[in-house]
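Troubleshooting log. The previous run stalled partway through. Resubmitting the same two chains, unchanged.
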Amino acid sequence: MAVKVHILGSGSAKPTATLTPSSQVLQMCDKQFMIDCGEGTQINLAVMGLRTPRLDNIFISHLHGDHCFGLIGLLSTWAMTGRTRSITIHAHPDLEKIMNPLLNYFSTDMPYEVRFNHINPLKHELIYEDRTMTVKTLPLRHKVPCCGFLFEEKQRPPHIQKEMIEAYHIPVAEIPKIKAGADFKTEDGVVIPNSQLTYPSDPPYRYAYCSDTAYNEKLIPLIEGIDCLYHEATFTDEFESRCKDTMHSTARQAATIAQKAHVGRLLLGHFSSRIADFTPLYNESKQVFPNTMLVHDRTTYYLKD
Amino acid sequence: MAVKVHILGSGSAKPTATLTPSSQVLQMCDKQFMIDCGEGTQINLAVMGLRTPRLDNIFISHLHGDHCFGLIGLLSTWAMTGRTRSITIHAHPDLEKIMNPLLNYFSTDMPYEVRFNHINPLKHELIYEDRTMTVKTLPLRHKVPCCGFLFEEKQRPPHIQKEMIEAYHIPVAEIPKIKAGADFKTEDGVVIPNSQLTYPSDPPYRYAYCSDTAYNEKLIPLIEGIDCLYHEATFTDEFESRCKDTMHSTARQAATIAQKAHVGRLLLGHFSSRIADFTPLYNESKQVFPNTMLVHDRTTYYLKD
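Second attempt completed without errors. Output:
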């Protein structure tokens, strides 16, 4: 199934003329998942003309303003425009304490429910599961408790070889059993092994979001071989000492994680307002991990058709 | 002195691709005054490249999110970028109760002081005064306590007729006294009346911001003859009943207030996301008050040279 990510904001704490604070919407398994919700998120949704009929979950990496100040505006606008479906916000428990007084003051008579799923950013664990996919936390190293998120499709059942259905006159009722792994017995009593009747579906797509974090090798086994890694790259090499002080990553460090984890592709974001020229940032990443892309705000990236 | 207004956002509650929530910076008497601070205010400051070295006062008309959700982001960014000058926020007392927990959580070690001046939006009174100007509240009619703001220059002292200084050999030390109204006595004992030595300075510039409000004739005497009125015009005539329900104004109603108050010019803003075509809105205002202008986001209007 198609996978795409809509980058709403890829800036860091201080907005610039082109960079708004962090937020993105991942579209996967026909559902939408918002990751972080910095100031301007609802504005960029409007600018992109992006509707969110399948957005029922928001994941907040950590409680710095550039990752969550857009929540109150988004939730208020949804209240005003008649949303009725509940929304679940997966975040550090403090977020509920912060948001509830705001919601009570600004959005009396909420027409929908806001649920908070308290997560522990220090643990790598399952925080969301449905029929087709899962989301797990990825502990990161930052100034406040912070985690990334790993979105994984579940392995879909194998496909049936259509020509076999015809060849062996397989009744429709048998197909779910074969998809689940059963062999097929013909009227003559011949057993056709499952492996001859099916071929495997695509391997499950896996996408990870890792922002904000200092260089963190503990991430590597958790994201080994995933299809796409979105990793923060706040600074170029030039700002390495500032990067260390603020517990962020350089583009080169992000690329090193991508390379060591053998990921398919690397999207870089969360750029500092100090970066005037993005060429060194791109080059420093590319030297280590060629399949690098720098994201732009208000842009959709098609990850899988 | 030059007067200009930087429109950061002129939208209403729901942002659109072109309209962000309310905020503007009035530049008057060489100072900057922010009026309202909806989500995206700090982003639009960055987009406009507008620096705010003389911004020490923020005026919040009322506590609906589209007029104040940008505050926490702006104050946090200032904290992070080393602001040291205190800021005064003039607003309904509830704003302090809302903001303090947010500031305590997100901006520990604030390098500057945030002062709250509690205002009573139901009264017309002086809430700010300095050497050159005053700000007064303008009670409005809205769903929650809400006021506009009247910014008035003080009358500056008269100018000295330069040719009189030469003609009567007036010493420099006498000039402040003459500016303050004194006559001048020549060495021969002849009294030159003040009126012959001076000519009046420009009349004080007056600017009023009125948003959000239902049609409100009580405003008229309070803004009689001012130079520029910024008035909300959320709807066209077509939406008159919705306008009434939501306690907003149509463009025609805004123009009627402008016309009855004999203001110099009318700036219209706070447009509903339902307005797809702005031509009727403009025309409906212009029919009643010709000197109408519809503002655009991220645009500066030069009101006086």
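Takeaways: Residues 38 and 65 of chain B are 7 Å apart (CA to CA). The domain at 3-156+202-304 of chain B is CATH 3.60.15.10 (Metallo-beta-lactamase; Chain A).
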